[in-house]
């Protein structure tokens, strides 16, 4: 049973993407350009991601806080690079009562400034360090070309902000956060990623170093999944975040910030889903198992299902569908919505004391006896997660092509692959390549560059870099 | 050990309130007037409230969604009463790039309008009803006089919005939601409340009926804890939310909305806390038990504490403080922060295989053997919750004074009590009373009013009403 409203990926990948979002009822467009209504199915994915990241962050002793939506424009203007990076995207606020607002406010596009203000109020001495604060919120940026999840006027994210006594400790935190993200994205979202530092041109406005996770979508375009920044002392200097050192002097803190946003939901969709709709990793799926009642309203069936739900419901996120819709309708619905496993229960299954176990990824159907179900599930979850990851990883690995000249580079990029090349990294060269090919430096691969030549300029290379077209 | 920065309630209740907030590190003022930095201790209380309400709402089959911060001003203007109610409080948005914004936007002061738009997009027929959607978000309203938690320019809340086929069903939902709030506020927050309908003058802008929970603070002022509104078909008509009925006609839906906000944290503080700092109900406290190590860094102690933490940590939210601060410092800290139970562990306790169990509410200290601990905890939790509730309830009940003339009314209000009186309820009369006494109608008590006379006008009474000064 195929949902006819879902466009085939081969026909038009962009239309497929929006049709999956619509049919899976994740979001709807809202009236203000670039904003969305998150429907229950869409928001539940984000809540699932939030719950898991909260758990991982708690292990690092991160505390959640909540800072204001509005920032004084005057405060925003203090860190030069930051301002220049965000100025074109800012929303500013005025009241409807003329003159009542004492000064212009901006709607936060990110919260480095508020965090600096909190740090300043909370940090007195080295004893108070490190401080690790995170917030879940939405941020707003004017965007010209908007697409659901991928580029929104308002989007949701978590932003982790930390303050440290030393550069060394802050850099370690930057990399540790990156590692937490990598494990989460690979293990929970089944998305293999390239990990590395961003080039100067792609760096976060105001950061000294930006590290990124880059995934590859099914259409050959890269997607930035998460970033982790070492901010140095730039913000701390601009906002006067100092502390008393062990030897009774004063120094400004070293900061990091890092974030993962609702953009990752777009990445999830484009990594795994197919022409039948959404495919979600088991670990993150809001509904992990749907028990589908084939003949509803029969007492024996109801009891059977009740026990099944009770057994599985303690361990997994389970729903029961005993509506009077047809089996075909139901299986199609959960397929479109990306529920990993459907357990069909009808007269046959009850007589044989079993369920029909249907996997979303492979569409495999097997009969499993109730006694073997728990064990089968454990294995099936592992296989399912591994299958999603391996499929995506094979795509990623086979897409990377080493390139040493510009013609080959253009060919690789036009074939929707990732070009790995030695490069003389300057902002100018990056801009030129983007202009000519649409490709951008996704991240730097750690490697020696001695005696290596830039594929583009023929000059000595400074870095080994992954280039791709990207969302 | 008393925290000297906490003002006595008797000295100045308002200063006591802000000193508790500051010393318990709940929030700090942020630079934009009326906005706050929620610090970890403050935000954790809200997360704890959120988690519990999410659980209660899930039982009603409510789904969480997330709708935009920005609403088109043109859309906002469609429901007349709603607009009039909120117009003076609106923040409007413009970009910094002149002319780029196609139309004026408002920052949501509440989301009835967005929910109508979602309902319109999701509801086709009676089969789709009822729809029960909730969102956790912040809303912004220009406020002149702001106070932490009680009145903020930006505050956090949940807003539940539902759509139904019939008035009867919608009214039932309004009351059911009110009941969920009442149980939550009384059982989890230990705050006894007066429950009833709001008068016309106090009704939500655009609603047909508003129901409220009103608690009494330690200074004799009332505080609105939560509201539940039957919106009728006003919004549905203005925003064209129709559905196909069973007999193939079209009708507009009946709606409800309801919310509880971070204001309740202010209510929590003023209900239970004392001159030593915060007192939090056990069920809602982010940290329920603090294990205080008296002599840190001793291997036997560490093991003892580790086992204790492991045993309790499965069931309760437990922290261990094995820092090298003094016992006095530690106990003071958790007292100020409102941790319900502290378990002190030192050499003595380890030798006797026990803990010193210290209750925040009564400050009782008892030695409890490890074997008896689980049972003691179960009892102590019940007693602790009951003690907070009963103390607050005694205050509430003894504050209610029946009043049948205006002189008595003024005396009661000036004595910081609640006046219960038969009243000829008109907007004009309510406004006059507020002007003369500062008291407002908190809610209507259900009662017959036949042959009853208004305490104020001497005319026949229309309602029996609780009046009080309120936050």
Describe this structure in words.
2 copies of one chain form a homodimer. Chain A is α+β, with helices and mostly antiparallel strands and 471 residues long. Chain A has 3 domains: 13-272, 2-Layer Sandwich (BirA Bifunctional Protein, domain 2), CATH 3.30.930.10; 289-384, Rossmann fold; 399-468, Translation Initiation Factor IF3, CATH 3.30.110.30. Chain A contains 14 helices and 23 strands. Chain A has helices spanning 13-23, 40-59, 73-76, 80-86, 112-122, 167-188, 234-238, 263-272, 299-313, 327-336, 347-352, 370-399, 406-414, 427-437, and strands at 27-29, 36-38, 63-64, 70-72, 91-95, 105-107, 131-140, 154-164, 194-197, 209-216, 222-232, 242-244, 250-252, 254-261, 289-293, 318-321, 341-345, 354-359, 365-369, 400-402, 418-423, 440-445, 463-468. In chain A, the strands form 6 sheets. Chain A has a 7-stranded mixed β-sheet with strand order 3-7-8-14-11-10-9, with helices on both faces. In chain A, strand 20, helix 13 (406-414) and strand 21 (418-423) form a beta-alpha-beta unit. The longest helix of chain A is centred in the C-terminal third of the chain and has 30 residues, at 370-399. Chain A is globular, with a radius of gyration of 25 Å. Chain A starts with 12 loop residues before the first helix and ends with a strand. The mean pLDDT of chain A is 95. Strand 5 of chain A pairs antiparallel with strand 5 (91-95) of chain B.
